[in-house]
Amino acid sequence: MNKIVFILILVCFSLSSYAKVIHQERSLYRNILVEDTFNLRCLRFNVKTSKTNQSCLYKNEPQKLVFNYTKLLFASLLVMEKAPENILIIGLGGGTMSNTLNQLYPSAKITNVEIDPAVIKVARQYFGFFENNNVISKVQDGRIFIKRATLKKQQYDWIILDAFNGDYIPEHLMTKEFLQEAKQLLTPQGVLSANTFSISELYAHESATYHEVFGDFFNVRNRQNSNRIILTTNQGLPDGKHITARAQILNQQLKPFNINIVDITTNMTSTHDVKDWPADTKVLTDQFSPANLLNY
Fold first, then answer.
1. pTM for this predicted structure
2. Is 216 a catalytic residue?
3. CATH 3.90.1150.10 describes domain 68-287
4. Which among 188, 193, 227, 284 would be 20 to 30 A from 295, CA to CA?
């Protein structure tokens, strides 16, 4: 065994032995655990493995983001022309993203959609998730919410897809039909970003599906984790000059949240330049969304 790998295993084992479960319950949808490990508090949706952490915060610095994928989501701001005014988040977790966006854009309307009311309760009680006149939460399946929102002709500047069931993204939130409905909710310059995994067996299918609906998109990822953010817009992707300029504008604003937006620009690749999936890859649809491939 590689010496570095062995040391990392020892460190992870040592940290897990210090983890203290401060809350545990079985909801209608999943096992929910809240664990404290020194200064770190994490929400988990499975009792078997620490890979199922859904949200974490530093108890003494809750403003600072912990997960790299959460930071990568802020690449979305690089392709926007202006600050978002209406934001839709599918999948609450601990409410970290909502809290951060409310601090950044206090006048923005933020709608959080979460299927499990127990998750909302835990987010409020243990992770400081807050709601006000501009920040609301809806207990509803994300697909149903988006379908109803299209009928109401609602519009959002930024849609964030971050729903996980403890194993992976629910199948019905990955299909061509779902993404077509979500696209209808975007303003003319709206942005959609989705948290996925670069090591998923569905990687190529996800890529082909997003490309089928939106055309070229950005892959945002780094070597520190297996997350991949799919970042797309309701119009063409901006060029590198625009992204660099936006990064300079946003840099100081995002630093208090432990986000290095200038560094994130180096982790963005466009499918216009690199399409890393086979041309004959099947698109995920409501009729073809194979559950047996969801183990990553």
1. 0.91
2. no
3. no
4. 193
